[in-house]
Amino acid sequence: MIRLGTRGSALALTQSDFVADRLRAAGHAVERVIVHTRGDASDRPFRELEGKAFFTRELDLALLAGAIDLAVHSLKDLPTDEPDGLASIGVLPRADPRDVLLLRRGIAARTRRDGLPELPAGTRVGTSSARRFAQLGRAFPGVVVADLRGNVPTRVARLRHGDFDAIVIAAAGIDRLSLDLADLDRFALEPPAFLPAPGQGALACRIRAGDAALRAALAPLVDPEAADGAVAERRLLARLDGGCSLPLGALARRTDEGIALRACLARAGRHFEADIVAATPDDAARLAHAVLLRRPIVVLTRPPELDADLVALLRAHDLPFVEQPAIDFGELPTPPALAAALARPGEFAAIAFTSKRAVASWCHHLVAHERPGGAVGRADRPPIA
Question: What residues are labeled active site?
Answer without folding.
Answer: 77
